[in-house]
Amino acid sequence: MIRGNMLIAQSGGPSMVINQSLVGAVLAARDAPEIGKIYGSRHGIKGILEEHLVNLRQQSRKVLEAVAATPSSALGSVRRKPTPEDCATIFRVLRARDVRYFFYIGGNDSAETVHIIDEEARRARYDIACFHIPKTIDNDLCENDHTPGFGSAARFVALAIMGDTLDNRALGGVKIDVIMGRHAGFLTAASALARVYPDDGPHLIYLPERPFVIDRFAADVRRVMQTVGRCVVAVSEGISGPDGKPIISSFITETDSHGNAQLSGTGALGDLLTTVVKKQAGVSRVRADTFGYLQRSFPGVISPTDALEARLVGATAVRVAIEGTVSSGSVAIKRKPGKKYAVTFEVVPLRAVARKTRHMPAAFINRAGNDVTAAFLDYVRPLVGTLPPVGRLRGC
Amino acid sequence: MIRGNMLIAQSGGPSMVINQSLVGAVLAARDAPEIGKIYGSRHGIKGILEEHLVNLRQQSRKVLEAVAATPSSALGSVRRKPTPEDCATIFRVLRARDVRYFFYIGGNDSAETVHIIDEEARRARYDIACFHIPKTIDNDLCENDHTPGFGSAARFVALAIMGDTLDNRALGGVKIDVIMGRHAGFLTAASALARVYPDDGPHLIYLPERPFVIDRFAADVRRVMQTVGRCVVAVSEGISGPDGKPIISSFITETDSHGNAQLSGTGALGDLLTTVVKKQAGVSRVRADTFGYLQRSFPGVISPTDALEARLVGATAVRVAIEGTVSSGSVAIKRKPGKKYAVTFEVVPLRAVARKTRHMPAAFINRAGNDVTAAFLDYVRPLVGTLPPVGRLRGC
Question: Is the pLDDT of residue B389 over 70?
Fold first, then answer.
């Protein structure tokens, strides 16, 4: 157990519940006699480097609760991997403020940042507890059953596809929806929750975990058009060809300092697939939408389970850090065995999460590689919550 | 007052509340002794031509209420302008079933369809009441203060931009959001409701009602980047250059039988504007999203006022038709003068609505043509309903 001040920050892509984790950590810290000042760093480690810090002890409970319910990183975010020189500056700034607790909310890149800072701190003989608080809508953190942010983003995707399959039913043709997920298909797979009636879409689901073969895709669409008479396709932005290269890669020019290519914020993949369907499947009415940033920021579409768990991982990180059994780690969500949904939180080593990507297990993907299994639906349903009913006229 | 059977159908782009109008009409008809059978035609006039009709009197109240709360045309939709030959077939089918009441829910193209059928029926000496029930998320019907479907779509847009300006605040750069609206900018303009704090986006709003000049757009973005440090742009899919040609027209190949170009279901405009900002405004992080079909079909984001009014226009059409003062027309929503929001419903001639497009009044657009006015916000706020609060940390 150390006494000292604390700093917390947010990093990577925002989510709808990332502020729940922030507020969970801040409220837990405010109750802890071991912790003095609570600094919030603006835009991740950038705020430490530029000494752009805010006082989180002086925020009213009302403000904190309003922030918790608001999507997107309230402290601002950043995509930046610290260099050894960055770490030296970071330690100078933190030492000057007697910061002994460091919390960083983010995905596997953010876990890598915490891992680097933790290792550099040991080297610099700076006694600081370094904890990663999980967040990612992609649901791709190793060691976790699922991650905070995923459930709400999956809820958005499920609702969007529910609406879209109704829209497609009204006007027909092929509709292609491009969904976020660079290497992991969980979010795209969650579109399967939209199915209420046997002919509901998505009729085809393509994930980054299986090679995407253009000709096979065109044949799949033709088959669905013949059997259902219309077709809704859910496709991950990260789908890759048999050569392992992302289909969209010919359009990509940007990467961040963690080496990630920018796949979102463009309609290019949807437009490419539209052309394929028009030419190779001979369908005239083909539309594509790319759900884009709405998936991680849309207000009011929040899974209650996701919001609660996001708050608890924040609070757990602070409690574990104060306990001091380990001086660094990442809080992971584990699902309890049994029929009733329940989770526990465990601390895992940073290196088990940092940079690594979890993929959809094979048991969650059908043999043809164009749909999910019942096992996946059992897995994802409690994370997303109850969806609204869909009415249908008799005889329609 | 005529006694006979009734037929109702839905046409054009679906909306989130188009089934409220259907159910409003059906419930009113079920209470009316003048009306016998209630046919629903599948996919607009196509269902009449192909005699694909369903019985709407035998649907349970529970089913009807579930359908009312479900987005997208429950009877299916169509984009088809009837030819004289179509009309002859339609009258043969309707006469055989003694249909004396015809209701068609849709936008200005659907009103044109009703107008054609009404005029052809007179010529054919077929005594049938022909009424158009308004629907369009674009809000571009003449004679109407606003149209059913707009308030809910505008709510989706406002929420999406609320989330997006929070996302943009976290990670910076320029975000371009392409919003539906072929000729009228109402839906794009509704993005202004997303502003809660003075630095909130959208920072720039471009509408089809004002010429879109690429160089001026790039200069606007540069200015916002200098003053705010980031920029969210709301742009209508229908923006046109000073030559009057849609900016996106170079990408368009499809039109429907009413002569409308297909502008939605592609990310091309967003990607084009992204390139402009990168090259001409010198911004490196630029993303574009095209909201697409989610705007008209997303479940659970419904304006209560919109849902209620959608139901009432349906019921009003049936009551007016039974009254028989006029044998054809379109139900229009008029706003009562005064501070408190209230509306009345009036019947206007079909020719006043058919094919015509209402645009944003000049008083709703700022002088520079890149934002809306306070008068527009006063106009739109009651249609969209209360939006969720946005929390912000002190010092952030």
Answer: yes
Residues A278, A289: Cα–Cα separation, whole Å: 16
DSSP state of B292: T
Helices (H), A31-133: 45-49, 61-68, 84-96, 108-123
pLDDT at A182: 85
Alpha-carbon distance values, B62 to A143, A166, B59 (Å): 46, 19, 8
Portion of chain B with pLDDT greater than 90, in percent: 90
Please tell me the distance from the alpha carbon of residue A98 to that of residue A171, in angstroms, as a whole number: 63
Tens of pLDDT, residues A326-369: 999 999 999 999 999 999 999 999 999 999 999 999 999 999 99
Q: Which residues contact A259 (CB under 8 A, 6 or more apart)?
A: none
Chain A, chain B: beta-carbon pairs less than 8 Å apart: 243
How far A54 CA sits from the closest chain B CA (Å)? Answer: 6
| Cβ contacts of A300 on chain B, cutoff 8 Å | 159, 301, 388
Give every CB contact of residue A126 below 8 A, 6+ residues apart in sequence: A91, A94, A95
Q: Which residues on A lie below 8 Å from B16 (Cβ)?
A: 163
Task: Dihedral sign for Cα A179, A184, A188, A191, please.
Answer: negative
Dist CA B306 CA B155 (whole Å): 10
pLDDT band at A271 (very low <50, low <70, confident <90, very high): confident
Tell me what the pLDDT averaged over chain B comes to: 95
Confidence (pLDDT) at B250: 63
A46 to chain B, minimum CA–CA distance in Å?
12
Average of per-residue pLDDT across B1-14: 94
Helices B374-384 and B150-171, packing angle to 10 deg: 110
Q: Is-above-0.90 flag for pTM? A: yes
Give the burial class of A206: count Cβ atoms within 10 A of its Cβ; 0-12 exposed, 13-18 middle, 19 or more buried: buried
What 3-state DSSP class applies to A76? coil
A226 three-class SS? helix
Distance CA A41, CA A53 (A): 5
Dihedral pair phi/psi, residue A142, rounded to 5°? -65, 160
Of B72, B300, B391, the CB nearest to A167: B72
Among this protein's residues, is B138 annotated catalytic?
Answer: yes
Of the candidates A153, A183, A146, A201, the one whose C-alpha atom is nearest the C-alpha of residue A376 is A146
ipTM: 0.95
B74 to A391: CB separation less than 8 angstroms, yes or no: yes
Q: Who among A43, A167, A293 is closest to B296 (CB)?
A: A167
Ordered structural domains, chain B, with CATH:
4-148+302-352 (3.40.50.450), 152-300+359-384 (3.40.50.460)
Identify which of A101, A82, A77 has the alpha carbon closest to the alpha carbon of residue A19: A77
- Residues of chain A with Cβ-Cβ distance to B394 below 8 Å are 54-55, 58-59, 63
Span B81-92, pLDDT tens digits:
999 999 999 999
